[in-house]
Amino acid sequence: MSQTGQESIGRELAKATFTDEMLEEMRALIGTELRTASSVNNEYATRLAILRFAEGIGDDNPLWTDEEYAASGPHGRIVAPPSFIFACLGSVQVGWRGLGGFHAETNITFHKPIGVDDRITASVVFDGFDGPTESNFGGRRIKDYLRQEYRNQDGELVATFICSRMRFERGEMQARRSSRKIELPHPWTEEELERIEADILAEAPRGAVTRYWEDVEVGDELDVITKGPIGLTDEIAFIAAGAAPIPRISAHGVALRRYRKHPKWAFRDPSTQALEPVYSVHYNDYAASLQGAQAAYDVGIQRTCWQIHHLTNWMGDAGFLKAVHGQYRSHVYLSDVVRLGGRVTDKKVDADGDHVVHVETWAVNQRDQKVMPGSAVIRLPLREKEANR
Fold first, then answer.
1. What CA–CA distances, in Å, run from 337 to 221, 230, 325, 333?
2. Exposed/middle/buried for residue 30 (C-beta within 10 Å: 0-12, 13-18, 19+)
3. How many helices (H) and strands (E) does the chain have?
4. Which of 5, 116, 141, 157 has the maximum number of C-beta atoms within 10 A of its C-beta?
5. H runs (alpha helix) in 249-337
6. Could you tell me the pLDDT band of residue 5, with boundaries at 50, 70 and 90?
């Protein structure tokens, strides 16, 4: 304790181990609805909030950003990318005191689009956990589950997000850090960078050219989109977009008072002597090293935003993303490049009577690691139905 009676804030993140007492304490919390007030970033999907979010994930689809274009589209107004739910409330963490955490998996079901000026509210419930189990990556770990439900101003369910995190003992993760060592930052050549940027500039959403269900075949490949090399500004833009963190980042006295109340939320950076939040693992190499990572790395839901950008580019304005799943494997470090692709694996009429396609998705870095295997379900319009109008 400090002289003021407050627990001191150290130069390292808190380190704890799994204990029977901890596990019983967390079991008793299953079913608890968590507080969200300090993590809400947007209540209303205003035009500027949608624009800021779209720019923060690198998605310039005019359906989200151009009022004139969107007015002539299927919704008659600007709508938000499906991933905008993260800009309302990215997530809330349930308190495994002193343990580290990585976002491990995302499952989202979408029910309705979010239109400009809709009011979105979220509730979060702790649904429990599995483990602890052993892993080669970081020793013993637990996988927990948070159920986040987003509703609009009419009380209609917009999306359900099941957020799964891996909890681990930081000391063990740090001890195994050298076994995962890679060359960072990645040594790109000028020629490689030119090719990457040319690929990015060639990307475009399908837009108003309708992709009909009848025209899609199993085995069809989706166009690839590219993100990177990931830089510090990409991470700052994601924060500015409102999609993170948990709790909100704050400055000066506001931050200090929070950290004094919750010392485990922060650490003192030995270089600047400033207090930094645990979330800074995504832009601070020292913080990332305390988590057992090699350097600063991307945010889990940020990767899902890229996946959704990829899918909405392919499906066009008239499509509707019904569900998306992704697993986060390996870190995506600053300086990495990620290419997102996919393949149609099935087409059917689902239980809701919708004509849908099932898509296998992937995200691959320059080291040929699949950093986000996943899947999606997309509803597409029928050419036959449109012809009979």
1. 20, 6, 21, 9
2. middle
3. 12, 11
4. 141
5. 252-261, 285-290, 300-315
6. very low
Average of pLDDT values for 248-256? 95
User: CB within 8 A of 87, min separation 6: which ones?
Assistant: 41, 42, 49, 53, 80, 241, 242, 243
Beta partners for residue 57, in sequence order:
none
Segment 296-302 mean pLDDT: 96
What is the number of alpha carbons within 13 Å of residue 200 lying toward its C-beta?
Answer: 18
Q: Is residue 8 very low, low, confident or very high in pLDDT (cuts 50, 70, 90)?
A: confident
d(CA 59, CA 41): 19
Tell me the three state secondary structure of residue 309.
helix
Tell me the H-state helices in the chain: 20-27, 47-56, 62-65, 67-71, 85-88, 170-175, 190-201, 232-240, 252-261, 285-290, 300-315, 383-387
Specify the DSSP class assigned to residue 246.
S
Residue 333 backbone phi and psi in degrees, to 5: -90, 155
Q: Which of 97, 88, 47 is nearest to 69 (CA)?
A: 47
CA distance 73 to 92: 34
Euclidean distance between CA atoms 173 and 151, whole angstroms? 38
Q: What is the pLDDT of residue 133?
A: 84
Please give the residue that has the higher pLDDT: either 83 or 133: 83
Among candidate residues 133, 131, 110, the one with its CA nearest the CA of residue 120: 110
The span from the first CA to the last CA of the chain, in angstroms, equals: 73
Do 375 and 325 form a contact (C-beta atoms < 8 A)? yes
Q: Which two tokens stand for residue 102?
A: 């990585």
Q: Between these two residues, 204 and 12, which has the higher pLDDT value?
A: 204
Instruction: Give residue 261's pLDDT.
Output: 92
Residues 6 or more apart from 282 whose CB is under 8 A from it? 235, 244, 245, 288, 296, 297, 298, 299
CA distances 379 to 72, 74, 144, 229, 311, Å, are 20, 14, 30, 32, 12
Tokens of 60: 């310039």
